[in-house]
Write a structure and sequence with these properties.
- Helix 1 runs parallel beside helix 11 and helix 5 packs across helix 7.
- The strands form three sheets. A seven-stranded parallel β-sheet has the order 8-7-6-9-10-11-12, sandwiched between helices. A five-stranded parallel β-sheet has the order 2-1-3-4-5.
- 31% of the residues lie in helices and 19% in strands.
- The protein is an alpha/beta fold and 412 residues long.
Length: 412
């Protein structure tokens, strides 16, 4: 967890804002370290609301609905880090956050099991046509019929995107006796007996069930379109618990209505409501053997608690010791504590000569550097300096004077 050292900035003056009903586990973790000024809100905020709310915030916690735009970041003069309490970070303008020296963390692994289990459960419901039989029973109709109902055992599951979730789905599917094939843009070592295929076309032509686990990029937008769906094995099933823009829903509707596909489960949509209770519409409503869920693939109590712990720990480690492992903006550094010294963090534009300027400034004023760490990316550099205790305030002021400085602060 975080260091026991005292932070240089009074903890009672650190303002932490958590939006979108982030797990209480995160609040507990943060408060247990002495940060009591934590404000938790149940919903997302609009850009205008965020611009107003973020002015005095040091740490911000969000989920997938809150959009962190360049305008929001411009207003966030005190912001040190953003914690995305979810898998993705596409709701944050990472370029603007990098330029502002704001660290962005997320939790890429914490809800993996929740999504994987649900995918298997949905596969069973769809291949057994439980959805239709459930609906009939509720309407007072008795459909005791095996027609169109199958076992998972012996069927082929095609996984598009063999990452954290896809590989977990692979393991669970094999344990049920399924054959697993997968397609990924890079070569991935398979788990169990799963086999990688060369193309998306090859995968969909062989698979009884296709499940998607890819990020939202220009390459994946409308990946499952009319042309690709025509290549699907007749009677196959599609599950999308990845990103809303990946599937052409109108093309999917046509394939379900004409019987080319026998079922689908969709959790993510191109346009989603802002909050619980809002109206929602999709072309897939009222279709037979289709399961629609409101972006809850990873929404289990266990997953939210794991995410709360993971991201809050990353935020606290950065705040109290400068560790940036898992950051999507500031370069990643993990460094040991330095006894008998004060630690200063310096974030700067990545241009030649900055490290030399730092060392020159401090050596000219006879400030001894006990430890020094540097990591850069294309845009910025991140330096962690441990200096003599009695000289930290002077060193801080000298580092602020360096031309390419973006952010500088004393940690402890």
């Amino acid at each position: 967890m975080a260091t026991k050292k005292s932070t240089s900035y009074p903890k009672e003056k650190i303002n932490i804002l958590l939006l979108e009903n982030i797990s209480d586990r995160a609040v507990q973790q943060i408060k247990s370290l002495g940060y009591l000024n934590v404000k938790k809100m149940s919903g997302a905020l609009s850009e205008a609301q965020l611009v107003e709310a973020i002015k005095d915030v040091h740490l911000l916690g969000i989920r997938s609905k809150t959009q962190i735009t360049e305008r929001v970041l411009e207003a966030a003069n005190k912001l040190q880090a953003i914690g995305c309490f979810c898998i993705g970070v596409n709701q944050v303008n990472l370029k603007a956050a990098t330029q502002k020296g704001v660290v962005v963390f997320n939790a890429p692994y914490s809800n993996t099991r929740s999504v994987a289990e649900l995918v298997i459960g949905l596969s069973i419901l769809l291949i057994r046509r439980i959805i239709d039989k459930n609906k009939a029973c509720h309407e007072g109709v008795w459909l005791k019929d095996a027609k169109g109902s199958y076992e998972l055992r012996g069927k082929t599951l095609g996984i598009v995107g063999y990452g954290n979730i896809g590989s977990q789905v692979s393991v669970l599917a094999e344990s049920l006796g399924m054959k697993v094939i997968y397609h990924d843009i890079i070569t991935k070592l398979p788990l169990g007996n799963a086999q990688q295929v060369r193309s998306l076309k090859e995968l969909v032509q062989q698979s009884d069930i296709i499940t998607l686990h890819v990020p939202e990029t220009q390459q994946t937008k409308n990946m499952i379109n009319k042309q690709v769906i025509r290549q699907f094995k007749k009677g196959s099933i599609l599950l999308n618990y990845a990103r809303g823009e990946v599937v052409d829903l109108v093309a999917l509707k046509d394939a379900l209505e004409n019987g080319h596909l026998s079922g689908a489960a969709i959790d993510v949509f191109p346009i989603e409501p802002e909050k619980t209770g809002d109206s929602f519409s999709t072309p897939l409503q009222q279709l037979s053997n289709v399961i629609l869920t409101p972006h809850i693939g990873g929404s289990t109590e266990e997953a939210q608690q794991n995410i709360g712990e993971d991201v809050s720990q990353k935020l606290m480690r950065f705040l109290e010791s400068g560790v940036t492992i898992g950051s999507h903006t500031v370069p990643e550094l993990a460094l040991p504590l330095q006894e008998g010294a004060h630690r200063i963090l310096h974030i700067h534009k990545n241009v030649p000569g900055v490290l030399s300027a730092i060392n020159t400034q401090l050596s000219n004023h006879r400030i001894n550097i006990v430890g020094q760490y540097l990591k850069t990316n294309d845009q910025i550099g991140y330096v962690v300096l441990d200096v003599d205790r009695g000289l930290s305030k002077q060193a801080l002021n000298l580092l602020r004077e360096i031309k390419e400085t973006i952010k500088v602060r004393v940690v402890y």
